Predict the 3D structure of the following.
Amino acid sequence: MIGKKKFKEFIYEYDDTRYKGKYGFIEIENPAYEYDYTQEKYLIRKPTPQERKEIIINYIIDNSGKRISINYLATTFAVSDRTIQKILKELKEENLIKIIPTFKKDGTQRFNIYKYIGKPRIKTGKELTIDLLYNPDNPYGFRDFDWEDHKFPYDGEWYSNDELEELKIKNEQKRKEFLQEKVIYKSVKLKMKYYHSIKGKDNVYTILNQYNLVKEYELLKDFNFKFYEFEIVGKIINIDSNVQVEIYCNNELIGVVKDNKYKFLGYYLRYEEDGREYSKDIDIEARLI
């Protein structure tokens, strides 16, 4: 018992977190603390209930049809399992998600699968996500202060909350700038050329056939199509709250499209037939629009 008590005291003495994963306050290790010990070791972040709900629905959209851990979400948002279950129940009642139970062979329930069934959403790069919430720079402007630090301090004449109001205004401005600075892309456009060529004695390829194809896909979900011998796949991802599209050809990543400037991509196949060397090439110009 003595050893156990000392262990608890040790943890209490050296654990600098304030809330320890409670009350909806998440605490993020401050990267600046490593170089400047006068900085706070942990950054406080607390989304509003509506922001928390928006992050969860975006998480489900990205993981639609998969198993989702209630405990993982509860730990991520520093709330109880019951709070997460309440949010999921609301989303179900709003016809945004479908909860599908799964069962073992003996009929006992295993876990639930969560599927997004709302209207398709085009990714804009300004979605509220877990990564955005945990970004130390807080580009969105989530609440990053503690009421206990700013509640009506007494300045000798009266109690004031001016400092707290300044923080609120600062975060509101960050949110406004975050939403305004993002370029909203709605789709990805691909202009493609297919070449079938034969290699001559001078090692120069002569084009036998050439075909053009233009495709455009909304940034709603991953896409794939076949263009002669080439299987083209586009995977939509968010990196640092910016929408990007990874382009694969025959299961090989050939490039990433990040903005409305044309990205030039290419892929080819070489083969021999009847002693002659042939080439099948595809050139792709891709951009977000």
